[in-house]
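ARCHIVE RECORD
Type: protein–small molecule complex
Small molecule: magnesium ion
Source of inputs: curated submission
Record status: active
Notes field left blank by submitter.
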Amino acid sequence: MAKGDPGGTTRSRRAAPRSKKGAAGDPELVQLLTPEGERIDSATGPDGTEYRVDFTDEEYRGLYRDLVLVRKLDAEATALQRQGELGLWASLLGQEAAQVGSGRALRAHDMAFPTYREHGVLYCRGIDPIMPLGLFRGVDQGGWDPNEFKFNMYTIVIGAQTLHATGYAMGITMDGKVGTDDGEAAIAYFGDGATSQGDVNEAFVWASVFNAPLVFFCQNNQYAISEPLERQTRVPLYQRAAGFGFPGVRVDGNDVLASYAVTRTALDNARHGQGPSLIEAYTYRMGAHTTSDDPTRYRIASEVESWQAKDPILRVRAFLEKQQIADATFFAEVDEQARRESVHLRERVLSMPNPEPVTMFDHVYPNGSPLLDEQRAQFNRYMESFEGSAH
Amino acid sequence: MAKGDPGGTTRSRRAAPRSKKGAAGDPELVQLLTPEGERIDSATGPDGTEYRVDFTDEEYRGLYRDLVLVRKLDAEATALQRQGELGLWASLLGQEAAQVGSGRALRAHDMAFPTYREHGVLYCRGIDPIMPLGLFRGVDQGGWDPNEFKFNMYTIVIGAQTLHATGYAMGITMDGKVGTDDGEAAIAYFGDGATSQGDVNEAFVWASVFNAPLVFFCQNNQYAISEPLERQTRVPLYQRAAGFGFPGVRVDGNDVLASYAVTRTALDNARHGQGPSLIEAYTYRMGAHTTSDDPTRYRIASEVESWQAKDPILRVRAFLEKQQIADATFFAEVDEQARRESVHLRERVLSMPNPEPVTMFDHVYPNGSPLLDEQRAQFNRYMESFEGSAH
Amino acid sequence: MATETLTLGKALNTGLRRALETDPKVIIMGEDVGKLGGVFRITDGLQKDFGDQRVIDTPLAESGIIGTAVGLAIRGYRPVCEIQFDGFVYPAYDQIVSQVAKMHYRSGGRLSIPMVIRIPFGGGIGAVEHHSESPEAYFAHTAGLKVVTCSNPQDAYVMIQQAIASDDPIVFLEPKRRYWEKGQVDLDAPLSDAYPLHSARVVRPGTDVTVLAYGPMVRTCLEAATAAAEDGRELEVIDLRSLSPLDLAAAYESVKRTGRAVVVHEAPSNIGLGAELAARITEECFYSLESPVLRVTGFDTPYPAARVEEEYLPDLDRVLDAVDRTFGW
Amino acid sequence: MATETLTLGKALNTGLRRALETDPKVIIMGEDVGKLGGVFRITDGLQKDFGDQRVIDTPLAESGIIGTAVGLAIRGYRPVCEIQFDGFVYPAYDQIVSQVAKMHYRSGGRLSIPMVIRIPFGGGIGAVEHHSESPEAYFAHTAGLKVVTCSNPQDAYVMIQQAIASDDPIVFLEPKRRYWEKGQVDLDAPLSDAYPLHSARVVRPGTDVTVLAYGPMVRTCLEAATAAAEDGRELEVIDLRSLSPLDLAAAYESVKRTGRAVVVHEAPSNIGLGAELAARITEECFYSLESPVLRVTGFDTPYPAARVEEEYLPDLDRVLDAVDRTFGW
Ligand SMILES: Cc1ncc(C[n+]2csc(CCOP(=O)(O)OP(=O)(O)O)c2C)c(N)n1
Ligand SMILES: Cc1ncc(C[n+]2csc(CCOP(=O)(O)OP(=O)(O)O)c2C)c(N)n1
Ligand SMILES: [Mg+2]
Ligand SMILES: [Mg+2]
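STRUCTURE (tokenized, with ligand):
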């Protein structure tokens, strides 16, 4: 499967074997694969846009592989945190389809601005999953060059990155990299809670006024830590967009195909000069907010169970099985790969060195600062004063 | 005319003498009095709400009087600034109808949160127009108790007051003062430029989530200093509301009747527990942004002229004349009252004393502070050291 | 007898409960303060007992929290706002420094904003970025705000109630890494008899060096004093408690006796509280000082990765090192 | 010969123009910076000559200005953001202190944010509230930001270009009450030869007292020095220019000679720049000081009404009063 461009290849296409027009469920929700693994031929967005995908078997299998790997690596990180190897972990459990679908819809030159939970998008960008673990282990504060990976650093301050994404997208326009088939686009990830932040709404204003080639991708996982969606809004979030002058659509965020289709369309519109749009990926945070959180304090088991039935991976597997696109050997092989990669990840986390304390004085300023030089020197002298002592 | 409640009286009613359904112009614009002074019987908002007013002759004359007085006092303030008696003045010229219409729609117990330009609303609240001049003269920083006048201090930081209004309105609900005919409501004033601020959008979120009894009253005067509306939005501002889950309506802000009707309805909905709404009063800033501004740098004379034809006062006068609700004696009497009040205002401004310098240490904290006591004492000693000297 | 052993966190929780009981106008607002009881459980159980009109889970926006709290205060309420972590107070900065801080002044004393802004602050808990900030200088430099912090459960219990009862807008900084530390708390002593909110306190008398600290660093300094005593040096430790206004009477008196002063805080050194303390003590005790006032602080870098925070934060050894230097000057 | 007499405002305008010419990645963004040329006309004519893709009128939201500028910087641009008045920078505070200041550090040095945030600051122009603030301590206390200010047209012209050329994020404070003051500006001297951006400068040598100031107060101190000279006292006046990092080599050298120091700024005293200067000078010059370092500053109140700002702001007399006090200690 062509990384970042599964829609671009041919071979044995298997478009919507069990054709079914319009999701059985919510008319507001774009869905192309039901929780039972039934393919829906095409779905219509609120503005009449038709969404469909046309994947090869190979590509379907690739998406399944992504989903399984992303979940497994995430579980490994959670385990590492439980064992004290990470200080914290924000699991994406339940949100794999939204992330893999949107992540795979990105082209190589598109730029993504994640929150702290987009491990799945990161994976789809072809980035080593070890990369964000320094932050969560506490050995660095992010530590990568956004431009190298076309993936911004994780952003913890809620909503701040949506403005960065907007500015970046304005820069795409200023660079003349918009309006053609090989135009560029940016995507800003954020949560349902984030929609209440001033910054996110200012990003909506800016993106609209400057017609920025940007996709706002909101993973509505129903919670902002303990607060359910109704603490942030009383209408569906995708509707926020219209009042700012651009389209919004709600997609089944547990459906990797629909998530892909909707994001791909939005990105293509953006790169062709049609400006920003908002995607609300309707999903659910199956686990805790982070490893520090205890969700039993604020939500009931039955709610979680009801979402279990909408699992983003099971439905793809059901589809692959029913359509005989994949067999037991394939599933076993994917599981084995996931196991291998997670073991590999674990090994590398365990061997991540602690930073030298004195490095904390580095990289405060590109041009340095005499104050820090002085503090670094003092610190070194101070540390040396203990050398040889029992300290 | 019953201050704050012109709709509540009876006597000789003269509802829409020249009946005309739906404004000739923009179907998006609620209008009840055309620039030519023709009454429109009723107008329909985007959500189907019917707006109409039913004023007595006395009330019509009262509105005219308000408009003329407000304009005259404003002009006097501008003149005072030109003569160096005020440091700055933000004129409301052109926005009289939006302010008088909405201001008269308020009931005595409703609370208003102005920007720095709501001199007309202030006047309708029955507040002495001298009150805000201390701020503009530089003798105080606002200097009144919002609760005493049911009118918050002027707020210069764009958008900040919309959150205050929202919190205040939440408090109305918490006090159980909502849901009945004598419920209370709040109104937040802000400009078109303000709609880009995070705070304003956060206020939309909050007001919606808490179903606050609040009217967001946006005077879209087409400019934020030099920046035309398209720097803030590419769709009509009233449409912003729907995405936050409450209704929005655009009213002809140069039409005092429509401004009254729309605001009255929105306030009544709020006080009855139907939550917030947004009014976009479509108007024009006829003068400079403030006395420091030079609008010729950024807008052309013909634009200003085209709005001159929509003057908020001329149309009321035309209507009163055509309908013989008022005669030359009345107009002369109003002019004379305006002259008198403005002379009176001027006299009082000229005699506003400068504050004693040492008062700058007062009222930093309700409970005081030893640091300030010390600084005050030092300051007094320092000032005394000059006494008798030539200084 | 109502003296109980409580953690600092539980003492705050109990103090908040008491405030909610005492005054029906007191309300608590913030992210996750309701059902969850806050990420540090400081508001645990309060929504259950006082209802969601008094303990309000807000939308996720700090400017909104403070801005609406201003409006509620105008309406007569006494909002206690929780900011989830120190690093997330900045979106509310405008509302805090331009609105909350100035309202009383702007109104010529006619309007008060009796608001408490609770912020868990400081490092030492192994957190990721933005979760270990020490923003006290930003607020203490701001005229119109008062700033306090507590270092032990007893103070936590009393000071939070005093802050809520005060008509001044107060930033209440909670030393998050001390939330789990235990101490005796007298639950019965009437608030009116309590030690004044804006007064510093000598927490260990001594004769050789005056050590000034607040919040999380008080304990560090007390430990340093214990260690120093073993070496025969008596540190006098002062818990400032109020960061704005500062109460330096005890410090002046102390330094005039000891001739030496060390100031300790986690925040970066440059233009921090330590600078002010050094400047004022020097001005007041100029002829008594045997050495300049020395500062032991976080460094002037962004808060570093958790695995080096131990070296970033002042600890017992760094305090003692500074004490030594005051003698070697 | 390209030495011209320019106002400080015009010098900034000319420096900005030069920066736009020199580097196509330089862009200017802010409220009213385009057609209007900014409320102080500092960007006058620039949009006309460089187009609205380089000089961008933004929506009215400061967090948006700085936040989108961060994104533009990631994309390779060098944004110069104008904040219309000092009092309106706070809505952008989170983006400035949590994002702009920390990006380089967070990336482990891999990403730079070469941004300049221009802020007209300080009082003395008879303005209404929020238009006369001196927020320098907030920024200078923030690790990861650099802060500079200019006091005369020549520095304005050079420093704005240096700031834009620097890869560090820089808060550039413009002394608004000095915008209209004139001075000679050498328009031809190459930037590479210019006096370093982060260095202080002795602007008047003297022997009796060292006076430290920056931005709008430099002129006030020079006037005080002239007056003092008439009384036979020679003040050495140092223009700090860089508020973070501070360059105090000249100050130390000076104080060691004079034994006396006075620090002057408009911002409130409490935890202001003056505190830091006093603390460092005392530490470095402990045995040379004949009196404590004294501060002449704005008071610890919100900025007062315009009609009393003259008494609020340090003036010649207050500087001289402090000078006197250093002698009477
Ligand atoms: C400005 C800010 N305030 C508070 C927080 C603390 N916090 C971290 S995640 C979170 C909830 C975010 O909810 P949402 O946007 O729905 O994203 P999710 O975590 O559900 O993916 C909060 C309140 C923060 N990181 N930043
Ligand atoms: C936060 C903030 N930023 C900038 C300003 C400077 N300023 C004062 S009025 C104004 C324009 C406001 O436009 P709008 O909201 O349309 O109101 P209008 O003045 O047109 O009534 C600006 C930018 C301010 N007061 N507050
Ligand atoms: Mg969420
Ligand atoms: Mg406007």
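CURATOR ANNOTATION: The first helix of chain C runs from residue 8 to 22.
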